[in-house]
Amino acid sequence: MVSTVVVDTNALMMPVELDVRLFDELERLLDGHEPTAPQAVVEELRKLAEKGGEEGIAASVGHDLATDRCLLVDTEASYADDAVVELAREGVADYVVTNDQPLQERALDAGVAVIGLRGKNKLAVTQP
């Protein structure tokens, strides 16, 4: 069975900011998955990349990862976190990948498991 894994903006920035091998970690945790990113996340990454600096570099890499490795989906919500939660509430997401604590809580409240950072550069699943 293929699980839908919705990735948040900060998850896509983890490879640069936290030295997390995001897609390798997802492979380690899950048998068969489809990384998915809302268009609002891609747009947020694009805007952050334009600002430059370290955050801009991480966002640029994240943008490239999203467009190269993820299924991109449209949502009603234009704010990235709301778009992720929309996919969780609609039953599209089997997992949400984020380090954003409020977003983790919103995903768990929607009944969706959360994948987040545990330790220095490993990911772990939290069930709702």
TrEMBL record:
Superkingdom: Archaea
Domain VapC9 PIN-like: residue ranges: 5-120
Gene3D superfamilies listed in its UniProt record: 5'-nuclease
InterPro entries from the UniProt entry: PIN-like_dom_sf, PIN_9
Descriptive protein name: VapC9 PIN-like domain-containing protein
Organism whose genome encodes this protein: Natronoarchaeum mannanilyticum
